[in-house]
Input
Amino acid sequence: MTTSDSTAANPAPDAPGWFRANCAVAPETGTTLSDGRALRWLRWGDAGAPPLVLVHGGGANARWWAPLAPFFLPDHCVVAPDLSGMGDSDWLTDGYGTEQWADEVMAVAADACPAAPAPPVLVGHSLGAGVVAAAALRHPDRIGGVVLCDLGGQRRGDRDRSSRLFQNRIVYPSRDDAIERFKLIPRQPCTNEWYVAHIARHSVRPVGPGGPSDPTRPSPAEATAWAWKFDWRLFARTDQHPLSVTLPQLGRASCPVASIYGEHSRVVPAERARRLDELLGGRPSVTIPDARHHLMVDQPIAFVTALRTLLATW
Output
């Protein structure tokens, strides 16, 4: 089932023209049932075009991709899912896992583009990069290509600090109060404040008397407080396999595989990027100048250019 999206774009007045124009392109919204859980997704363009599936990172949601998705029309049908425990999708009570998320991505791709003329190309950022890598290994005959965007484990101190931030159960008295507290994780500066403001507006949810542990969302008028959209227990997952095992397997995959990194990423510094490229067996990689871990937010036009160039060669 799909419906027309009615969420107001309302980009910041200082946002560039392309950003305002792309935010005005309203996607269709849909829900896919996968193993009893409801997964929400956004779709732009003709469902009969080759699918391009954009997968968000940890604690994020499909709306991170909304300003960029129209750049890939009409050559692709662009789909962005909310993984379980994030965005507007269901929460789970027994933990989360990379392989489970990978199966969710494939279920959404099949449901959103049932008559696709080609297998989907999967693009994943951060945690989402690990998810699309797992999808390619679990469903090798159903993948048209994989792009890993700043995939990599953080240093222990950064990882532990980020994990604590994701366990935030603080509630805020109003939507505006919550939005004002939004920060990128891992913490980093970003000069494109209009992009960060867009993400912040789509990262909060109304909560009722059950508090932030209750995924049930009242209407904004009935909310007793506001909290982040993601499940604070998100990183209780236990089945993520080491990159030293999965990346060599992915490097031998028959589908195209490529990586995109941020030049100044704390998550994937240059030496780690070289190591990941080695594990992938020398598959193509691109480094976005002057970008950090959230590379599509830091340098959106350069990111889109790199991704379109890769897709054109496939």
The longest strand covers residues 37-44. Residues 154-158 have pLDDT under 50 and may be disordered. Residues 59 and 230 are 5 Å apart (CA to CA).
